[in-house]
Structure formats: C-alpha cells, structure tokens
Amino acid sequence: MPIVGPDSTVDTSGNKISKFFNKLTGQPDSYAKKSNYIYGRTLGAGAMGVVRQARNINNKEDVAIKIILKKTFKGNEQQLYDELSLLEKCNHRNIIKFKDWFESKDKFYIVTQLATGGELFDRIVSKGKFLEKDVISIVKQLLGALNYLHNELNIVHRDLKPENLLYVTSDENSELVLADFGIAKELRSSDEVLFSAAGSLGYCAPEVLLGTGHGKPCDIWSLGVITYTLLVGYSPFRADNVTDFLQECETEPVVTFHRDYWKDISKDATEFILKCLKLDQFQRSRAEDLLKDKWLNNDEEQYSENDLLPTIKKFNSKKKFIQAVEIIKLKNRIKKLRELQNINDDDEDFEYYSGSSVSGSVDSIDLNTLSIGAHNDHNKDNELKSNLNANLFQQIVRAATENREKVLNFKEESGSSD
User: Fold this and answer.
1) For residue range 93-115, what is the model confidence (pLDDT) as tens digits?
2) Closest Cα to residue 49, out of 218, 208, 180, 239?
3) Which end of the chain is less packed: N or C, by CB atoms within 10 Å?
4) Residue 159 known to be catalytic
5) CA angle (45 as vertex; 344, 124 as ends), nearest 5
6) How far apart are CA 119 and CA 304, in angstroms?
7) Three-class SS of residue 38?
8) Rounded to the nearest 10 degrees, what angle do helices 16-25 and 377-402 cross at?
9) Of 11, 29, 159, 349, which residue is the catalytic one?
C-alpha cells in the first residue's frame, strides 16, 4: 500500500480487543501491531529516537524497530512518510528490507530487516586476512545498491558511510546491506538539484557543504572515500571541521596516495578512486559506468595478495575504547531524549540499557536469551503471548474503568475486519 500519511494505515490485525483498547485510549488503529513484537536490546539512539532489536512473535523473525518521536518533526511529518515510502519501494539484496510500520499517539515505529553480522569495519578488523580482492567484493555490492537506487528508483541516499553498511549475518559469505534512509531523497527528475543539508563530515561531497546544489554524484564521492579507507584503513581527509575540509578540496587531485601505505595497492584501484573523487560533480563517473570499471572486472588473481589487515588494524587500534565510549554515549543520548522530550520513566520504548541482560516487563526481554530455532521456541512463544495478553488485559481493565461511558456505548464499526 502506498504510504502517504496516518490516514492511509489499514488495520489488518483482526484483533477486536486491540482495536477496542485503541478506541478507549485514542491510539491509531495501526498501534495494535505493536503487540506482535517483543523488545530486545537497544541498538542505537539519536536526536529523534532509538533503534531496538525485537522479535515478531507470529513468525519468530528477529527485526529492528526504529522508534521516532513525533514531536521531533514539529509538523513536518511528511519527512518521515517520505522515508517510509522510499524504503517500501526498495527491493534489492544489498539494501536493508522494509518490513512494516505503525504508530502511536506520540511515536512512529519503522520495522526493518535485522542485520546481525555487524558493521563493515568491525567485520574487517575481526578477519584473519583482508586482501584487495575483498575490497573489490565490498565495492561491487555497494555499487550494485547505488546503481539500483540511482537508475531504477531515482533515489539519492546522501549518507553513505561505513556505519550504514551492515552484514546481514555473521556468515563468511553474508551479503552487505545499505541502511538508514533518513535523509535519502527521491528526485523528481534525474538531474534535479537538492540544496538541503545532508550527510556526515568526512564522507559528504564538497558541493553539499557549500550549498551549491547536489544530486546523485554526492553518493559517488562518498563511495570514493569509503573505497580509499577500505584499502588502507585511514581517511583521505584529515579535517575535523567544514572549513578545513573545504580547504583540502581546493585543487585536483583532492587526495594523496602516500607511498608507504599504497605501494602494494594496484594502480587500477587508485584510478577508480580518482574517478569518484572529482571536485566537479558532473565529472564524476556514474554508478553504472563504475560497475564496468576494469578494477572491478579484471581477474582478481592479478592483484596483490598482500594482506591489508595489519595497516587497517594500525589505524583502528582504538576501536575497543571507542566502542566503550559509544555505550556511554548511547545511554547519554537516551537520557537526553528523555529530558528534552519529557519521556516518562516507565516508557519501555526508551530503555537505558544496551547490554545483553535485562530484567523487567515482557517488552524488555533480551532476545539473546531466546534461542532461535530451538526445540522449545513454541513453549517460549506461548509463554510470551500469555504475558502479552495478560498485560493487555490489565491495560484494558484500567482504561475501561476510566472510560465507562465509552465502554457502554462502544460498537464495532461496520465493515471492520473480525
């Protein structure tokens, strides 16, 4: 179904009790879908909300749920509906899969595929060996996603960075998927120019920061930065602020290939990067052309068997410390969300924890304790459903007591599903 706003939501749950409860509390019909999910650990948090791991109790599928506070949009809900619409259109093996969405009076919930294989660089650092041909495999997958977005859907992602590149599973041959379409845009024409701020410093193109107008080529710039970093472990740019970054990009070529680290990297690789990192966005190669580049299509065996991992690890030696800091930052983000948005302490959507062991309500059960595919899944699901039903019943009794007149006068709307 096309996503155009809250009125477009259709309740297909067939759950009269949930609909009845929603009528009493003033919740949108789609809110009944929330009872289909059991919350797990918090995966991340930002200025607008959090991302939680969850399990669909109907099909036992583990998913990610992005929970966004409506008040952060301040009347600009269309931005959220645009993201939902873009995700719904995407159907590519290297793009995170959209599953569902629903809303409450004060939040949006976006349900997507859960990628459990880890972020791109975390996966690389954990490997025993990392070769140039491994970089080629990664770039091919990312380019496949970009080519699909740019040429089949006319979408520019605008926030390509390693943190948004995730492996679906921990399997060695797992596919890489592109996630986070929060600032992606569908262009009205292939050459439409955008002027709104977008992207992350270090990966976004100069034209984005200068505000001179940008489009699909800004994704190609980000691809070039990622490719450079994949090969040597450090960024082609040193700047940590916009002014210094723009000064670094004043003349061509904008990047330097330091001999100490690039001597064993092929010339084909450096030429590929230079095709992406052109100052003039209209001189950058397009996704469909880069897919035909010789670096990606030559016999991989001709490239050096030199292990890139030692160099990459050298520039990622602070990773564990950074991860520890990230846990603290995550908790602080959630705390700040609570303070700024006046989130109640009993709001289970915004739990403080990010670890693997949680006590409390059924909505806070740690998914790591649920053995996927185990023989006792059926019994666990029945227990979880019983807990959910008991919890829902208690809420209904409380709401019914407070809304006696509505209960006495309630009638099922004609044409609604049973």
Assistant:
1) 999 999 999 999 888 899 999 99
2) 180
3) C
4) yes
5) 155
6) 25
7) strand
8) 40
9) 159
* DSSP assignment of 86-108: HHHH---TTBPPEEEEEE-SSEE
pLDDT, tens digit, 9 for 90 and up, residues 185-224: 999 988 889 998 888 888 999 999 999 999 999 999 999 9
Running along the chain, 418 residues long, what does each successive block of 10 average in pLDDT?
Answer: 42 55 74 91 77 93 90 76 86 94 90 90 83 94 97 95 90 91 88 87 92 95 95 88 89 91 93 97 96 92 81 64 56 63 66 39 29 39 50 52 55 45
**Which string of DSSP letters, residue by residue, matches 250-309?**
SSSS-----HHHHTTS-HHHHHHHHHH--SSGGGSPPHHHHTT-HHHHS-GGGS-----H
Neighbours of 210 (CB within 10 A): 12
Question: Is 133 annotated as ligand-binding?
Answer: no
Distance CA 378, CA 209 (A): 53
Extract the runs of DSSP E, i.e. beta strands, from 114-182: 155-156, 165-167, 176-178
Contact 198, 159 (CB under 8 A): yes
| C-alpha distances out from residue 337 to 108, 149, 333, 342, Å | 15, 32, 6, 8
Q: CA 361, CA 270: separation in Å to the nearest integer?
A: 54
What SS3 state is found at 190? Answer: coil
Distance CA 148, CA 291 (A): 11
CA dist 97 and 86 (Å) reads 11
The answer to whether the beta carbons of residues 29 and 21 sit under 8 Å apart is: no
What is the reported pLDDT for 311? 82
Token pair of 116 as six digits:
């459990």
Residue 58's contacts (CB-CB under 8 Å, 6 or more residues apart) are 36
CA distance 357 to 366: 6
For the segment 287-327, what is each residue's pLDDT rounded down to a tens digit?
Answer: 999 999 999 998 877 787 888 888 887 776 545 455 555 55
- Residues 14 and 418: their CA atoms lie apart, in Å, by 5
Asked if 218 contacts 199 with a C-beta cutoff of 8 angstroms, the reply is yes
* The pair of three-digit structure tokens given for residue 254, joined into one six-digit string: 């904008």
Angle between helices 217-232 and 132-147 (to 10 degrees): 170
